[in-house]
């Protein structure tokens, strides 16, 4: 097998990268009917497996889980996840031959082995569904020609796929039909029905391609969504402690601050987040985010270039072959950071205080969202896809950090995302060394407005507002958020 994307001529590469049609809600009036009465069998019951299954069942669909024998015999977590939620569980041999749709929600690194094990058991004309394009695009997996191959990819960590559904909302979702596998022409109808089943249609669905999804998903998770939130959290905490801020306060500000700050981003975009700052704080946060963009731009571009060329996948698959040596080493290193080891203090922090005392994170988020969006669009990803993958998913990742710090984020996201997150973090921390030397507690830990008279130059403020509001991520975000009529607010502890 070889990288499918690299076998395409440039014209077809650009064509598949550019597939991105925002689907009007009227396209989902058939609801789940295309899958009603069908047997949906999910392989794996982890972050996506469990949470998608819970949503699908609540949407009236017939869901069961097939797990590898050692998971059943060893009563592993995946077996506990499925049985404790009263799902039917069986072996591949027991459940796959009667399945109408087999949903592969195992780790990307296992996909080739898993698909080779389940494909011979799949009945003629069945459907194989992925939630990420890696196996098809980066590994070039070939699927039996009588099978339909589709993708329904939530732009969200598994835990929040369920949390948003329970709130009566959903998460933005990319759907696609693999052009090499749609023999009965039923792929799109099934993908749409599955997206309704997970609740994705309430947040927004893009008709995408396996190529567009994988090349944008890898970029979002490595940079703004996981990598930069990890780097920014660790550097912010270390700076506060270095400057004598109480470690418990610093830990709470960082752990919950990213959720409070990005909740404003979710509802009002970058400009909405900046509007939560005083005028003098907005001017300062703008200035340092401009500097952060200049420092990090080459790193964001390198990540996108390596994703496009297949170099990222090559080095990650090398680590797979090497027993996940880097992944496990970086995971252990992250767990040993002072931020991860310092519990949030029992101290009251008001909602506005998270903005006034944490300008640095506001600046990190603006720089990361805009850089990730700009870099994806320059590489051929359409703005709607880039928006979901950069701005909208950031608060959903932040929800996991608020729950149990970086440990929870790295536990819930895929192993592919976790590897990419660490890869970015390892490069970004030293890149920001000189910048962080100049950072003081006015930007992180203390109220920026304290002792200042609050006056600003009107023309400068008008220019900053104009720059924030006219960025393409704000233009497309305003349009996409209009469709998110069921979006709910989250109150932080
Ligand atoms: N995590 C996320 O939020 C997102 C993930 N995705 C995609 O969803 C897919 C699943 O990812 P995710 O939910 O994170 O995976 P998890 O690591 O959370 O869960 C993987 C599941 O697969 C099982 N599994 C592991 N190894 C094997 C194997 N060799 N054979 C059979 N089953 C195995 C595990 O159970 P056990 O070890 O007990 O057998 C577990 O139930 C991936 O393609 C990922 O890219 C897409 C969007 C977001
Ligand atoms: C949660 C999600 O969308 C990620 C980051 O792409 C993943 O976990 O792979
Ligand atoms: Mg993703
Ligand atoms: Mg991913």
TrEMBL record:
InterPro entries: 6-PGluconate_DH-like_C_sf, 6PGD_dom2, KARI, KARI_C, KARI_N, NAD(P)-bd_dom_sf
Alphabetized UniProt keyword annotations: Amino-acid biosynthesis, Branched-chain amino acid biosynthesis, Isomerase, Magnesium, Metal-binding, NADP, Oxidoreductase
Binding of Mg(2+) 2, residues: 217, 389, 393
Cofactor(s) for this UniProt protein: Mg(2+)
List of catalytic residues: 132
Top enzyme category: oxidoreductase
GO CC annotation: cytosol
Catalyzed reactions: (2R)-2,3-dihydroxy-3-methylbutanoate + NADP(+) = (2S)-2-acetolactate + NADPH + H(+); (2R,3R)-2,3-dihydroxy-3-methylpentanoate + NADP(+) = (S)-2-ethyl-2-hydroxy-3-oxobutanoate + NADPH + H(+)
Cofactor: how bound: Binds 2 magnesium ions per subunit.
Domain KARI C-terminal knotted as annotated: residue spans: 209-353, 354-487
Entries under Gene3D superfamilies matching the protein: N-(1-d-carboxylethyl)-l-norvaline Dehydrogenase, domain 2, NAD(P)-binding Rossmann-like Domain
Any GO molecular function: ketol-acid reductoisomerase activity
Its EC number(s): 1.1.1.86
GO biological process, alphabetically ordered: isoleucine biosynthetic process; L-valine biosynthetic process
Domain KARI N-terminal Rossmann: 17-208
Pathway(s) this gene product operates in, as recorded in its UniProt entry: Amino-acid biosynthesis; L-isoleucine biosynthesis; L-isoleucine from 2-oxobutanoate: step 2/4; Amino-acid biosynthesis; L-valine biosynthesis; L-valine from pyruvate: step 2/4
Pfam families the record matches: KARI_C, KARI_N
Binding residue positions for NADP(+): 45-48, 68, 76, 78, 108-110, 158
Positions bound to substrate: 278, 414
Binding site for Mg(2+) 1: 217, 221
Family (UniProt): Belongs to the ketol-acid reductoisomerase family.
Cross-referenced NCBIfam families: ilvC (TIGR00465), PRK05225.1 (NF003557)
Function statement: Involved in the biosynthesis of branched-chain amino acids (BCAA). Catalyzes an alkyl-migration followed by a ketol-acid reduction of (S)-2-acetolactate (S2AL) to yield (R)-2,3-dihydroxy-isovalerate. In the isomerase reaction, S2AL is rearranged via a Mg-dependent methyl migration to produce 3-hydroxy-3-methyl-2-ketobutyrate (HMKB). In the reductase reaction, this 2-ketoacid undergoes a metal-dependent reduction by NADPH to yield (R)-2,3-dihydroxy-isovalerate.
Name of the featured protein: Ketol-acid reductoisomerase (NADP(+))
Organism: Pedobacter paludis
């Amino acid at each position: 097998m070889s990288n499918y994307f690299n076998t395409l001529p440039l014209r077809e590469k650009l064509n598949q990268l550019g597939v991105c049609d925002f689907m009007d809600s009227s396209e989902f009036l058939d609801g789940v009917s295309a899958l009603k009465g069908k047997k949906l069998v999910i392989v794996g019951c982890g972050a996506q497996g469990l949470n998608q299954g819970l949503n699908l069942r609540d949407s009236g669909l017939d869901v069961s889980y097939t797990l590898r024998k050692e998971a059943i015999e060893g009563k592993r977590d995946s077996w506990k996840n499925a049985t404790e939620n009263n799902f039917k569980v069986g072996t591949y041999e027991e459940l796959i031959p009667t399945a109408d749709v087999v949903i592969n929600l195992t780790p990307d690194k296992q996909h080739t082995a898993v698909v080779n094990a389940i494909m011979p058991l799949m009945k003629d004309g069945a459907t194989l569904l992925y939630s990420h394009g890696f196996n098809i695009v980066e590994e070039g997996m070939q699927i039996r020609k009588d099978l339909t191959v589709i993708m329904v990819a939530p732009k969200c960590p598994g835990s929040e796929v369920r949390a948003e559904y329970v709130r009566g909302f959903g998460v933005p979702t990319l759907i696609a039909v693999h052009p090499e596998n749609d023999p009965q022409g039923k792929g799109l109808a099934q993908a749409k029905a599955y997206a309704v089943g997970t609740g994705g249609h309430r947040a927004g669905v893009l008709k995408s391609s396996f190529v567009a999804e994988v090349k944008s998903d890898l970029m979002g998770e490595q940079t703004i969504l996981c990598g930069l939130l990890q780097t920014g959290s660790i550097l912010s905490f270390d700076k506060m402690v270095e400057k004598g801020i109480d470690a418990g306060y610093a830990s709470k500000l960082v752990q919950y601050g990213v959720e409070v700050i990005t909740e404003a981003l979710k509802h009002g975009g970058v400009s909405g987040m900046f509007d939560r700052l005083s005028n003098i704080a907005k001017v300062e946060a703008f200035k340092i985010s401009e500097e952060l963009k200049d420092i990090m731009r080459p790193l964001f571009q390198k990540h996108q270039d390596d994703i496009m060329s297949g170099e990222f996948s090559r080095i990650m698959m090398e680590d797979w072959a090497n027993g996940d040596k880097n992944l496990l080493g970086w995971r252990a290193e992250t767990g040993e950071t002072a931020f991860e080891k310092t519990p949030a203090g029992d101290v009251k922090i008001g909602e506005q205080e998270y903005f006034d005392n944490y300008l640095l994170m506001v600046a990190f988020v603006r720089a990361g969202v805009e850089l990730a969006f700009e870099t994806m669009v320059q590489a051929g990803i359409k703005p709607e896809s880039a928006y979901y993958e950069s701005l909208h998913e950031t608060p959903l990742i932040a929800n996991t950090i608020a729950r149990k710090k970086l440990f929870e984020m790295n536990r819930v996201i895929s192993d592919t995302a976790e590897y990419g997150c660490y890869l970015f973090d390892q490069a970004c921390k030293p890149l920001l060394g000189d910048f962080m030397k100049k950072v003081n507690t006015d930007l992180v830990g203390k109220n920026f407005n304290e002792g200042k008279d609050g006056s600003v130059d009107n023309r400068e403020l008008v220019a900053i507002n104009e720059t924030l509001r006219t960025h393409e991520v704000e233009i497309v975000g305003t349009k996409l958020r209009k469709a998110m009529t069921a979006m709910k607010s989250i109150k932080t502890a």
